[in-house]
Amino acid sequence: MCNTPALEVSFATREVAALKGSIRFLEIAAFLLAVGVATISGSGVQGSKSARADAVFVDGSDSECEQWRVELDLLLTSLSITSIAEEGWVYRNGQETAERFREASGVVTKSKVAHNDTPGNHYSHDWNADIRVDPGQTNILSNINHPNNSDWVASAADFVPADSIEMEWETGITPGEITGDGASPILPRWVLPNLGDRIWTDGHWVFDCGHAKKVGGHYETIDVGGNPVNVLVGYTNYFRTEIHPARALASMRSQAATLPGTGTTPVPVTATDLYIHGRGGFMVQQLVCGLDIILDSNRSDCGSELAPIDQLFDFDVCLPPKPADSATLASRVTVGPGDSGKGADPVVAQVTPAGEACTLPADEYGNVFDHGAMHRVTVDLRNTGIQPTDIYARRIVSGWVYPEAQPLPHLSLALNLLDLHEDLEFDPFDAEMTFWWMGVDRAPVDEWHRLVNWEIPTYDDAGWACFGHDNMLEDMDDDGYCGNGELKFSGPEWDFYLRHAQPFTVHTSGFEQDCLDRYFGSKEFEISTYIVCYGANFFFELTNDHGNNDPIALMDASVGGSGIDIQTLLGDIVLGVPGKFDFHFTLAEIPLSNEDTADLAVAKNCTWAGEVALVGQPATCTLTVSNAGPGLPRNVVITDSMSSVPASTAPTVGTAHFRVGNDSTTYPCGPSSSTGFSCNIGTVPVGGVVTITVQVTPRAAGLLTNAASVATSSTDSNAANNSSSAAIQVYLPVTIDIQPGSSVNSVNTSKKGLVPVAILTTSEFNAAALSVATACFGDAEAPLQRNCTDAQGGPRLTDVDRDRDLDLLFHYEVLLTGIDFGDTRACMIGTFANGTGFYGCDVIRTVK
User: Fold this and answer.
1) CA atoms 234, 240, 241, 243: torsion sign
2) Is the backbone of residue 571 left (phi > 0), alpha (psi -120 to 50) or beta?
3) What is the pLDDT of residue 151?
4) What is the pLDDT, as a whole number, of residue 122?
5) Which residue, among 443, 439, 422, 423, has the nearest Cα to 431 in the 3D structure?
6) What does the alpha-carbon distance between residue 212 and residue 420 come to, in Å, rounded to a whole number?
7) How many helices (H) and strands (E) does the chain have?
8) Do 123 and 170 contact (CB within 8 A), yes or no?
9) Under a CB-based contact definition with an 8 Å cutoff, are residues 776 and 757 in contact?
10) Helices of type H across 336-420
């Protein structure tokens, strides 16, 4: 709320009659209207204490504001104050209700320091942020909240649907602190929101009684000193709702930063500055102590009203759009400045379906978020012992571990010079502008700076007819009349990575300080000070904001964006507001170091279901790709090649799939062929792995070689570990018959003797066609215990199964086969003379 003193002039019939014929009335009324402190009003209509259950918006006429109205008696020759009531606010539903505190979230459409707060109920100037609320939050808005901006409407039917609520919180920096960030800032600059930020806030839910909107009524003409004056009477005062002051704030910014798993590589993120503190400033005292804050500023029994923060808070963080199906979520939480050390880190839920606010179309600030997932952040400060005067501060960075297609540019923006065209004072008077702020929305740390901290007092040699002097923000002259309006700066310098097609925006906010500012922080303020300040400066500031601090024009200047090559903008740039001021900057690109460097490695391993790989039976090959960093590689592709001996019998290769880390979800690589496959896995997290699996089915016995290599568009610092291979010895499956002619395959493990074993000729295999080089037989589970010597000097061809084809019959000494009592299977493995292997098993029954 821009807190112009809310003194209303209420004319009863008796008072209007007394004014007729007063030559002073028009002068005083004109003065009050000019300075923005007076309105002509009638009685308001009181509503119920709570909003109706079926109301979409809060009824703005339903408040206790009317009982705090300021009434003035305008006498014939002087202005005397006969009764003063509360200037400002009441709780929406009363101080002791459960709805004393409410939360709001949405997009920031205004962010600035209030230029005309008053010291009667403020320790320092507020920081104001207008929040266009998320869907489903209209129940915290009054029906006259933005965009209902006119001062009067004919009827409530003329309201348009409200969409915004204002959040206000004192900065804690008094105007007397000419430089620095304040001895004890209540709302420090590192958390100040920027235009286009998403924001969540929790705080006092109040009606702003100082900015009534008149609804209905009619005009009556009265005669004052022979002049007709139109007076609006019979209307109803409506009041807007605010979160004022807040006790918790999360500023969520679309930026670029590193995440766990990205190493040195910045990626698009939502960076959240979270700040919770129970002190809101004098305004909270006023909600409790009422008018005495203004009338008796040294009251010892009022004290500081503090808001409890030992609560459960939670809010949602919308994420950048997911760049690839396989991209994984990550977050980082660090302790923020000033934290009191009470309360654990927030719990960041990694997998939460995106809420409606995250799925809205792109807005005027270019905000586009992922429609599938978001982060739910929970801060549980219950039972932590945290006090309202303590600070809970965290920085949370959330995003996807996946690099942009091209490395993000690393930029620096440095402020060099101010060229002031309008100092908001009549020449030859100079301005005081120590409360001029500048913010860059993409800077990951300290988006906002107070410019006075960086000024270099600059000598203004105005020429022979004028006095030379040093320009500084405490005493700044524009370039009209005798001045040159120039002030040099040594900074600030903002350092940030810029997301592709995203502009960065420079914002300013501030005011030219005047009479009221000298009283902030002192509590030495009397109601007569309003009259002193507003009267003393009247003539000097006739065209400005009379007697109060004049707002400096807001700058909202964007640089870059879609279709603009940032390289073309490097160098000196000038941003400003025409006719008001120009700022000169240097925009430079910082050379990248290891942001686009990684060390990829690949390992290959193949397994199969049985003891050996067999023709016709699938083997599973696993490729493990790791990244030792330091950065996140782009466009990572795995190439896997198959070669077989003999070459004419290439294997059948199934569809390869990959997964990232321990994620159970797999993603297809694309089509495979008998010679292998290629897999675009996108990236590999730093310190993590991507695993690719594929089934390979051999078509012939022999050696099958599987070679894999990994490549990236980024710089790979060690190419020696970018390839790996696995050789598979494929065996020909054969059918063996133990104890041919017997249906039970009985083996006596306690007696010496021979066990006959035959390799049978089948329709797929001719046992007589190949010469056996080696053949070992024995326990299926103990390959090393098998007997490799035929007890009769070698196999012989015979038709053991009486099917009129020849089989190979072997004989082995039972006690040398490793078969033990209780074994149920025995196997034969060996090679033919041509080098190919064979393998077969059969069931057995052991006896003693």
Assistant:
1) negative
2) left
3) 87
4) 85
5) 423
6) 36
7) 5, 55
8) yes
9) no
10) none
Would you say 792 and 755 are in contact if contact means Cβ atoms under 8 Å apart?
no
- Please name which of 656, 525, 574 lies closest in space to residue 121, comparing C-alpha atoms: 525
pLDDT for residue 302 is more than 70: no
Tell me whether strands 267-277 and 391-400 are parallel, antiparallel or unpaired. Answer: antiparallel
> Which two structure tokens, joined as six digits, stand for 752?
């010496």
User: How many whole angstroms separate alpha carbon 104 and alpha carbon 90?
Assistant: 18
d(CA 256, CA 442): 8
Helix, strand, coil % in the chain, rounded to nearest 5: 10, 40, 50
pLDDT confidence tier of residue 377, bands split at 50, 70 and 90:
very high
Report the pLDDT averaged over residues 139-146: 95
- Of 218, 214, 215, the closest CA to residue 230 belongs to 218
The arithmetic mean of pLDDT across residues 218-228, rounded, is: 84
pLDDT digit string (tens) for 728-750? Answer: 999 999 999 999 988 889 999 99
Residue type, 118: T
Here the tokens at position 265 are: 């590589």
How far is residue 829 from each of residues 614, 734, 753, 763, 777, measured CA to CA in Å? 12, 9, 21, 20, 7
More confident call, 467 vs 779: 779
- Cα 446 from Cα 253, distance rounded (Å): 12
Average pLDDT score over residue span 306-312: 95
> How many other β-carbons are positioned within 10 Å of the β-carbon of residue 287?
23
- Local structure of 684: helix, strand or coil: coil
Q: What is the mean pLDDT of residues 419-430?
A: 86
pLDDT confidence bin for 32, thresholds 50/70/90: very low
Residues comprising the chain, all counted: 848
For 297, the token pair is 């500023």
pLDDT over 70 at 169, yes or no:
yes
Q: pLDDT confidence of 48, banded at 50, 70, 90?
A: very low
Q: 292: left (phi > 0), else alpha (psi -120 to 50), else beta? A: alpha
Specify burial of residue 149 (Cβ count, 10 A radius: 0-12, 13-18, 19+).
exposed
Say if residues 276 and 309 touch (Cβ distance below 8 Å). yes
Quote the longest CA-to-CA distance of the chain: 143
DSSP letter at 427 equals T
285 or 714: which leads in pLDDT: 714
CA neighbor of 714 nearest in space, from 545, 815, 599:
599
Distance CA 788, CA 785 (A): 9
Helix (H), strand (E) at residue 80: strand 79-83
C-alpha 186/C-alpha 177 separation (Å) is 14
What is the identity of the amino acid at 46?
Answer: Q
Q: Which of 772, 743, 760, 763 is nearest to 840 (CA)?
A: 760
Of 264, 268, 2, 256, whose CA–CA distance to 116 is shortest?
2
Q: Taking residues 303-328, what's their average pLDDT?
A: 93
733: closest CA among 606, 823, 610, 605? 610
